[in-house]
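User: I'm writing a short report section on ligand binding and want a predicted complex to refer to. Could you take this sequence and uridine-5'-diphosphate-glucuronic acid and write out the structure as tokens? A short remark afterwards would be nice.
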Amino acid sequence: MGPVKRICCIGAGYVGGPTCSVIAQMCPEIAVTVVDVNEERIQAWNSDQLPIFEPGLQEVVEAQRGINLFFSTDIDKAVREADIIFISVLSNPEFLAEGTAISDLKNPDRVLIGGDETPEGQRAIETLSSIYVHWVPKTRIITTNTWSSELSKLAANAFLAQRISSINSISALCEVTGADVEEVAHAIGTDQRIGNRFLKASVGFGGSCFQKDVLNLVYLCEALNLPEVARYWQQVIELNEYQRRRFAARIVSCLFNTVTDKKIALLGFAFKKDTGDTRESSSIHISKYLMDEGAHLYIYDPKVKKEQIMQDLAHSTASPEDLERGLSLVSIASDPYEACDNAHAIVICTEWDIFKELDYERIYKAMLKPAFIFDGRRILDNLHGRLQQLGFQVETIGKRISQCLSFTASTISQLDLQAPPLKKIKI
Ligand code: UGA
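Assistant: Sure. The structure tokens for the complex follow:
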């Protein structure tokens, strides 16, 4: 096979769009076409309002679109003309994290290509490698058999999720002992064998990948008769749900054991900062728990649209009656000050930088007293002293600050905080 001239990628979502945009930028001699059956999505890729937000993406798309980067619904044509089609040609798992997808693509820790050991499989591996060598050092291109490659993807996400559940489990212990989880994370993270990344205690991990991939691993282990291994990984998910419930229970407990008819400002709905993606976001779970307790939620997120928030909350309710009642308790605010006006409490669920820079004096004055802040992301650590001086009662993950931590494990179980049922996903 001669040099690759045309690439076709099927699927213009969070992975296909950014990946192909960077390939087009890095390989100017190759025409890259991203196809999708969803016309609206393709139109958006061809417009100024890209369908996803990712720092640096707009610039790459604008530089290449119409030159060697194309978005189309004509799947047949693109597939017919392509030298490489990105869809199970090989196993080429991506390791992009949302919010940093462009830099992950441009400077990856590794590129993993798995294929079978036949001559055709090996040739396919070489062809795909020839694309990546345009910008990735050869030493970082790892080639394996297909199973190793597929399992590496699941295992990488499972290990990352496990680290978060591990530190979140320690955060619970910190709150009752008086330790500070940030100090513990720093102390253990300086051990180079452990490392300091993915040790940020939080309101629980979200996103479309971690839960799905850990559950895939659980399913695989069960199917292959490895029940002990399946249970081990299942616990990573269960701890994550516990962390969300625990946080919601703490809010209720601090607000004098009831949030019924109280106004709560929920800041951040995306599953992490720098993305508009809400899939499996902990904010959905926290909102649902508080709605079930009768709280009035005023939600603000800089990148998530109102329709998306309403749709996510609607999907998490069990019956049409619950839906009507639940949604009548939710308002979407157009800025954080509006959300906090006359609120009893602020709940930070996503670590958006702008939440560190709000005028908290102004916010405090406009809130009902006592005014609470629940920092589910530990983003206000540097401000705790000042916030307390202003009069706020500050509550945060993994650290005991105010005295309202009177809640216990029994408070958590008293609340009807049922997590939505887990779906097992086949691969
Ligand atoms: C994750 C992996 O990090 C990527 O390597 C992988 O390619 C991707 O899944 C995928 O399978 O496609 P992503 O889900 O975009 O990427 O985001 P992460 O940065 O991993 O964050 C996941 C969740 O964990 C977020 O809710 C984040 O807030 C939370 N998190 C992360 C913590 O609570 N604490 C941390 O220390 C780190």
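A remark for your report: Residues 406-427 have pLDDT under 50 and may be disordered. Residues 94-98, 157, 160, 164, 198-200, 202, 205-207, 209-210, 271-272 surround uridine-5'-diphosphate-glucuronic acid (CB under 6 Å).
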